[in-house]
What does this fold into?
Amino acid sequence: MQLTLYGDESGTITLCNDPKFKFFYIGMISTEEQKKVKRVFRNAKKAYCKQYRPNRNLTKEFKGSEMSAHMKRFIFEQLINKTDIKFHFIVSDNHHLRRVLREKPHITFNFLIGRFLKRNCCEEYTHITLVLDNRNKSVDNLKDLDHYLSTELIATTNIRSINVLYVDSMQSDLVQIADVFNNLLYRYGNGKRIGESNKCTKEYNDNLATLKMLSNRIQYSLLFPRNNCDFEINY
It folds into this structure.
C-alpha cells in the first residue's frame, strides 16, 4: 500500500533551555482525496476572510502563524466535515535529548522521521512518499533524508520504497495545511510555558478545543524520548 505524507516543522532543535524552545514539532497530513482537500481548504480560507478579514490578499500564502485560533478551528472543521483528511505528528522534547542530538539538528530530524515511520507505518505500507517544505530549517542536504530512510527502513521493514520530495509551500496547499496544523501544535504546546501576555498562552484553551475536535482524525504520532517527552494533549 502507498502512503503520502505532507509535512512541515515548527520550533527548533537547540541547546537552548528557554521554555519556548522546549519542543520541536513535525506535523503531517495524509489524504486519499487530494483535490477535494485542496478545494475545501481554499474555500474555507476564502469564506473566513470574506466574513472576518475582507482586506486579506488570498493570492499570497497564508501561514499558520498568521491565523488566529478561531480561523484554524474554522478551517479544520470544514476539512474534517467534508474530507477524509488525517493528521500525524512528532514532538521531540529538547530538554530530554542527548546533547549530541541537540547539536546536530539535521541528524535528529532524519532520526525522528525514521523512528516515526518504523513505529507506525512499516506493517501496513510498502511505499511511502514524504512531501516537505523546501524551507525546512533542519534539512542539511536535500538527499540526506532520502538516503537515510532508504538505508534504515528498506533493509529492516516491509517498506520497499521511500521517496522524499521538497516543494515550495506556496505551490502546495497540502503542505500549507500541514503548516497550519503544525502551528496549532506549537501554540498549544507552548501555551503553558510562556508568559501570560504571549499569544500561545492567550489561545491555549481554544487550541486545546481544536485538538480535541481533531482527536478522531489524529492517526499516527511519536513522542521522543518516549518516556520523558512532556508534551501531552489532554483529551
